[in-house]
Design goal:
323 residues; alpha/beta; UDP-N-acetylmuramoyl-L-alanine:D-glutamate ligase; 9-stranded mixed sheet; 4-stranded mixed sheet; 8 helices; 13 strands; 26% helix; globular
């Protein structure tokens, strides 16, 4: 465990991808070519975005994972370092390409994404050992589903043995979360689609989010946060249930890309800033950063979050909570 009087220490074991982003007025139909408007690349990945979000909120962050020896690998590491993330635990894989995500955005900023995880899915016992070493001085372990599930599960077990809080973002939903994982995490943070994939409950409003959160807790999760975009989040734990609203800036952004991992990255910084649940002595009793899913949204893709003024606003405690 980290010293209680210092900044929180977050370990992220997860995906590091290069996003290949194309903008077009609309999506092409099968067999059709639509002339696009812009193309650019940006470092991302659920793990990478969470790591940067937590670092920008003031945490000391160590990233564990793998990148390829291709042109994207050095760029991904440089991007993480530039945001103050320790990448000494990120290995370079000589045999597999860096993970990438091909992202198409239409005029309404709705997206279509194809992810090829490459080196991320080659994480193995070496990354597990690096995670275990980092956990000796950590407060929080963050996990997703962009690396092998068995490695993440063993990392969660190691975190529990050391009294480190485990925050697990069950994304992408297509991978699925093993039942055993619920017993070895502290907080699970699905978005609406992921909550539905895990529980079979279509999440469309607060009522359905509450039912999904209850179902997740029935499976063994001590606390569940269901992310609802502009509606904020619904949270449930032994210390209470309720809704926390999204920050005002949510209304000014429309892209959904990067939202969940930005929110979770801020959540991992909870020991300093007000965040989640009474699931361990590291977590305060109320939820904050309810909609911190969209800091860069349209303004900027890639490692997150955005401007310092946004960070300052989001680090202030909320004036009220809604149950």
């Amino acid at each position: 465990m980290a010293r209680p009087d210092g900044p929180p220490t977050v370990v992220v074991l997860g995906g590091i991808n290069m996003d290949l982003i194309g903008l077009a007025p609309r999506m092409a139909a099968p067999g059709e070519t639509v002339v696009g408007q812009r193309f650019y690349t940006a470092p991302g990945g659920k793990g990478g975005n969470q790591a940067v979000a937590a670092a920008r909120m003031g945490a000391q962050v160590k990233m564990i994972g793998r990148v390829g020896s291709d042109v994207f690998g050095p760029a991904l590491l440089t991007g993480l370092r530039g945001h103050g993330v320790d990448v000494s635990g990120v290995a370079t894989d000589p045999d597999h390409a860096s993970g990438i995500a091909m992202i198409l955005l239409d005029a309404l900023r709705q997206n279509r994404i194809v992810a090829i995880y490459g080196a991320n899915m080659r994480c193995d016992d070496r990354q597990l050992r690096a995670t275990e070493a980092a956990l000796e001085s950590a407060d929080v372990l963050m996990l997703q589903l962009e690396t092998p599930v068995d490695v993440s599960l063993r990392a969660a077990l190691a975190a529990g043995e050391r009294g480190v809080t485990v925050v697990w973002d069950p994304a992408p939903a297509t991978v699925g979360l093993p039942e055993e994982a619920y017993r070895h995490l502290d907080v699970i943070t699905p978005n609406q689609g992921e909550a539905e994939a895990l529980t079979g409950i279509a999440v469309t409003d607060l009522g359905s989010a509450a039912r999904a959160a209850t179902a997740l807790r029935d499976r063994g999760a001590p606390a569940a946060v269901v992310k609802l975009g502009e509606q904020g989040v619904f949270y449930s734990s032994d210390s209470g249930d309720g809704r926390a609203p999204a920050p005002d800036m949510m209304a000014s952004h429309t892209s959904t890309h990067h939202r969940p991992e930005i929110w979770s990255g801020a959540m991992a910084d909870s020991r300093v800033e007000y965040l989640a649940f009474g699931v361990s002595r590291r977590f305060p009793s109320k939820v904050f950063f309810a909609g911190m899913e969209d800091l860069d949204a349209v303004r900027r893709c890639g490692f997150v979050p955005g401007g310092e003024s946004d960070i300052a606003r989001l680090r202030r405690p909320p004036t009220s909570y809604q149950g």
